[in-house]
């Protein structure tokens, strides 16, 4: 999968920009604040329909203008396509091959993008919320209906918590919420279990490569229901209902839902030790890279095509050896790398690299 070209109108600090991309490596080079991340942000929008930096569409529209447009032409093994996002005052439209879509999940999966930013280097170190958000984004890309399940789950969870905060909790209504929560929850639990199992395998191999075989990375699913491989949707449903029922008094007392997949996390071990507690900074960072980049192989396994990889500002955070390992190991994917400077030009193969030099919202030259 690759992005052939990109058109931006009134996107952040760009008035009007048209770029054609290299099939392999695209380096976006420029000083701070010039518009490198803005370009990859727009590419991300083609995949997810929204920014990864803000949930407020208004912020990405160029100051003092009203109508924004992002269009991208992409190729897959057997098809070509066009994704377009337009944002105007109080309106937003997304088209796939000139046809308006109604729901975000119709967009997901057209262009698969894996984005790696400096925050991802802390994926292992951060709290469970960040890891859950990682899991959710990745599964949604591979399986758009997951996104729907999750939206429904969160909606019901919110309503349930509202009800728990009311003066007199209506237990019949609570029953209804519990059933819905367990219904969507059980789908999500199973999908998360299966995803984590796959990503654990891939990241184990990748980590072995990145550490020269010294470290064994082990990732497992941490959840309150002790979900096992044999569990089916209906067994998970029953487990979940049971938990909710037996904790109802407690939930009413504390006015919040104690059990559910909103408490999930990952157990991450290196050579048998919990890397969050005992790992060095470097080990935590490398484990984060292995975990995050395992999506690339996973998407290829599930979708049959490699995703587009965006490395926003992470490149300069890696030492030369790791930069080279990364570029060499990922030579099958189209990459967009933003960086203030290229310290080790020799790691890129000139014949399949294009350098875009960026200055205050303009691509001033292409090498
Ligand atoms: P760094 O190396 O620091 O990450 P960068 O090149 O990635 O820098 P970007 O984040 O792409 O920088 O661009 C930031 C610039 O975009 C800032 O100068 C900011 O003022 C400008 N900018 C952000 N939003 C808008 C907007 N809505 N309209 C116009 N300009 C904007
Ligand atoms: Mg940036």
Describe the protein's architecture and organization.
This protein has 367 residues and is of the alpha/beta class. It folds into 2 domains: 1-112 and 305-367, P-loop containing nucleotide triphosphate hydrolases (Rossmann fold, 3-Layer(aba) Sandwich), CATH 3.40.50; 122-303, Glutathione S-transferase Yfyf (Class Pi), Chain A, domain 2, CATH 1.20.1050.90. 41% of the residues lie in helices and 24% in strands. It has 10 helices and 15 strands. The strands form 3 sheets. The chain has a 6-stranded antiparallel sheet with strand order 2-1-4-5-6-7, with helices on one face. Strand 14 (353-359) and strand 15 form a beta hairpin. Helix 3 (128-142) crosses helix 4 (144-165), helix 3 runs parallel beside helix 9 (281-303) and helix 5 (171-210) crosses helix 9 (281-303). The mean pLDDT is 93. The structure holds adenosine-5'-triphosphate and magnesium ion.
């Amino acid at each position: 999968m690759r992005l052939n070209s990109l058109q931006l109108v009134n996107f952040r600090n760009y008035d009007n920009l048209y770029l054609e991309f290299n099939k392999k490596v695209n380096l976006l080079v420029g000083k701070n604040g010039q518009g490198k991340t803005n370009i990859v942000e727009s590419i991300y929008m083609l995949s997810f329909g929204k920014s990864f930096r803000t949930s407020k569409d208004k912020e990405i529209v160029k100051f003092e203008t009203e109508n924004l447009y992002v269009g991208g032409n992409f190729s897959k093994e057997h098809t070509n396509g066009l994704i377009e996002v337009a944002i105007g005052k109080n309106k937003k439209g997304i088209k796939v091959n000139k046809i308006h879509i109604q729901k975000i999940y119709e967009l997901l999966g057209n262009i698969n993008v894996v984005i790696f930013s400096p925050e991802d280097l802390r994926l292992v170190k951060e709290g469970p919320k960040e890891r859950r958000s990682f899991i959710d984004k990745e599964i949604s890309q591979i399986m758009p209906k997951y996104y729907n399940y999750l939206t429904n789950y969160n909606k019901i969870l919110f309503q349930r918590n509202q009800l728990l905060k009311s003066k007199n909790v209506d237990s019949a209504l609570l029953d209804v919420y519990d059933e819905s929560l367990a219904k969507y929850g059980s789908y999500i639990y199973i999908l998360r279990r299966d995803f984590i199992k796959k990503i654990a395998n891939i990241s184990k191999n990748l980590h072995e490569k990145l550490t020269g075989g010294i470290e064994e990375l082990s990732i497992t699913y941490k959840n309150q229901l002790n979900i096992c491989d044999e569990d089916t949707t209906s067994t998970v449903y029953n487990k979940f209902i049971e938990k909710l029922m037996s904790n109802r008094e407690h939930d009413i007392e504390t006015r919040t839902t104690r059990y559910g997949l909103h408490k999930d996390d990952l157990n991450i071990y290196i050579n048998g030790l919990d890397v969050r507690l005992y790992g060095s900074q470097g080990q935590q960072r490398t484990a984060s890279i292995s975990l995050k980049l395992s999506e690339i192989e996973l998407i290829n396994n599930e979708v049959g095509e490699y995703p587009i990889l965006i490395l926003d500002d992470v490149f300069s955070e890696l030492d030369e050896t790791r930069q080279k390992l990364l570029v060499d190991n990922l030579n099958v994917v189209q990459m967009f790398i933003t960086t203030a400077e290229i310290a080790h030009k020799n790691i890129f193969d000139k014949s399949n690299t294009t350098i875009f030099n960026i200055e205050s919202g303009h691509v001033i030259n292409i090498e």
